[in-house]
Amino acid sequence: MQAAATKLRIDKYLWAIRIFKTRALASKACDDGKVRCNGDAIKASKQVSVGDEYTIKTSDKKWVIEVLQLIEQRVQYAEAIKQYTDKSPIIDTLTNTTASIAFAFNTGKRQSKQARPTKKQRRNLDGFMDS
């Protein structure tokens, strides 16, 4: 196990606990005001301390985390989730999922992982539409 860090930037911490895929994305989120500490937008250079609570908005989810331990290096997901407590509201996650499904349904676009119709299926559709 690694020794705990004494000084650590928030962008590096968010990258290490796998909230963001790259440190550059974590830094950009801080610059865009998507990372907040006690309701105030923070810079990527802010020092993280144990016990701090952060609100992070990503494209997938709104995170609310409390820092339990500091780590400098990116580790496996199983180890990373031990470094913080996830206090994210569950209801928000469920509404976000249903909203994205409803959006795809209403626009008439194909959902992900659905292929285009084959030639045979297209002929059947054309025959169905003509009759």
Question: How would you sum up this structure, described in words?
Answer:
The structure is a single chain. The protein is α+β, with helices and mostly antiparallel strands and 131 residues long. Helix content is 38%, strand content 15%. It contains 5 helices and 5 strands, in the order H-H-E-E-E-E-H-E-H-H. Strands 2-1-3-4-5 form a 5-stranded antiparallel beta sheet. Helix 1 crosses helix 2. It is elongated, with a radius of gyration of 21 Å. The mean pLDDT is 82.
Strand proportion: 5-15%
Shape type: elongated
Please provide the ordered H/E string of secondary-structure elements.
HHEEEEHEHH
- Number of distinct beta strands: 5
What Rg do the Cα atoms give?
A: 21 Å
Question: How do the strands line up in the largest sheet?
Answer: 2-1-3-4-5
Task: Give the biggest beta sheet.
Answer: 5 strands, antiparallel
Low-confidence stretches: none
Q: Average pLDDT, to the nearest integer?
A: 82
Helix content: 25-40%
Multimeric status of the protein: single chain
Q: Output the number of helix runs.
A: 5
SS-based structural class? alpha+beta
Measured between the Cα atoms of the first and last residue, the distance is 70 Å
Summarize this entry quickly:
The chain has 131 residues and is an alpha+beta fold.
